[in-house]
């Protein structure tokens, strides 16, 4: 049977033409997106990765341990007690409370994105998340426990025994495996896809005109000299009160105020702290290591005075706050 090509040729031509038109439209669109991304690739802030490669079973185990009150001496406090994930990874208190209603001496930092931080705690005394876990579990004012007690409790849980045996067949439930599971879970707590990150990836309309202006001013005033990188901070130490005596103004100096000095014993490290991450900062008040500042507006104003030696105009403060609010990302369940 002969096929009448005169019937299908117009359709073929139409398909080919459509394909050419589509490809001609797609190429400029692709280039436009690439150009938009390239436009911001040299910015001081970089987007949080959209995915993280971690063992799902270990993350799930770590999540359960993170929420398990049996890690505390009297079975009343879990990691999540001071770091509720639904609240930006902080409890919103100036100072958190541990076992027996004891109050801590320093503001609780967020656990979100902590896997991106170059050190843990305000004074940087723990270089890794694994080492950080030793602190709250053993601090008498926080969870007040020890590894012998913790392991004894967890080994009475048949579910934990099976899960640890599967993940760590040679060690089972042990100090290092508990720390590994919790730290792996904490590394999963990234908050990608914030409006600002989407903006950096080429979505020009992801943030408001005010937030864009705020970002320009954030850089122009010098805020990004300390708050930069993927975590927008948390990658260096700085003295609180570079241009003005913060502690002299505030008064009532405590041991916690000595910051890095408490770790190194070096005099010049007094009043020096890890620069906090500004990721999700709109959710993590009150602010500063002493939890003395309630609002972002006030925090920006005070930081400008004490760290930059500048007075920022009211409108500029509002613009910078709008930018900071655009740093709130998405925490996957």
UniProtKB/TrEMBL annotation:
Co-factor binding details:
Binds 2 heme groups.
Q: Where in the cell is it found?
A: Periplasm
Q: Name one GO molecular function term.
A: heme binding
Q: Which residues form the Cytochrome c domain?
A: 209-328
Q: Please state the protein's primary subcellular location.
A: periplasm
Highest taxon of the lineage: Bacteria
Q: Which residues form the signal peptide?
A: 1-32
Identify the cofactor(s). Answer: heme
Q: For this UniProt entry, what's an example GO CC term?
A: periplasmic space
Which positions are annotated as binding heme c 2?
223, 226-227, 303
Decide whether keyword Amino-acid biosynthesis is in the record: no
What about PTM? Binds 2 heme groups per subunit.
Q: What is the protein's name according to its record?
A: Cytochrome c551 peroxidase
Q: Quote the gene name from the UniProt entry.
A: ccp
